[in-house]
Design a protein that fits this description.
Elements: E1 6-9, H1 23-32, E2 35-41, E3 47-53, E4 55-57, E5 60-64, H2 70-77, E6 80-85, E7 94-105, H3 108-122, E8 127-129, E9 132-135, E10 138-143, E11 145-157, E12 162-167
Antiparallel strand pairs: 1-12, 2-3, 2-6, 4-5, 5-11, 6-7, 7-11, 8-9, 9-10, 11-12
Length: 180
């Protein structure tokens, strides 16, 4: 039986009338959001932040980027990262922060499922070629795909304001798939 991660309302950052955000609400935001902000750290310790689309699948958050891009180079030296999404509203919505570690996805079946998500959600027609995404008609443009396994997820709700911290079983996110 798969269990949901444990969520705890953080009282010091929450209004007394608030309650913990249900995990199902957080998963809905992760599934439905189109844009995320990826935060990584450069080799010299400086932060790097970039917007990109990401897809929630099997308990992990997935994104792709060119191997030559700064974020990919940063992840080579430090696989820890943070992805954030939510609203730009002060009084409404749910903001979600996913902290975790990335691993490159090379499994053809998983990549094919992810390519279909990108196509359905954003209209991006990625093809799977040699364990990466490729733009149709431009075989020179390949993008490795990464999966972020959450170590901690924070959910910030508004009106009333609350922060919920989710922790995960030691083996990772329920339903998560390890990729080769």
């Amino acid at each position: 039986m798969v269990t949901e991660p444990s969520g705890q309302r953080v009282p010091e950052f929450s209004e007394p009338s608030s309650s913990a955000v249900p995990w199902s609400d957080v998963e809905q935001v992760l599934r439905e959001s189109e844009m995320f902000w990826l935060s990584t750290v450069r080799r010299d310790g400086r932060p790097h932040v970039a917007p990109l689309p990401a897809m929630w699948l099997d308990g992990e958050l997935h994104f792709c980027t060119g191997a030559h891009e700064q974020k990919a180079r940063n992840l080579e030296s430090d696989p820890r990262c943070v992805l954030t999404t939510g609203t730009n509203s002060y009084r409404s919505g749910l903001d979600v922060v996913v902290e975790g570690t990335v691993a490159q996805v090379s499994d053809e079946a998983t990549l094919t499922r992810l390519a279909q998500l990108w196509r359905d959600k954003l209209g991006w027609p990625f093809e799977v070629v040699d364990g990466q995404f490729s733009d149709p008609g431009n075989d020179d443009h390949r993008a490795p795909v990464f999966a972020v396994t959450p170590a901690k997820v924070l959910a910030f709700s508004k009106a009333p304001y609350s922060q919920t911290r989710f922790t995960f079983p030691a083996i990772g996110v329920p339903g998560a798939v390890r990729h080769s």
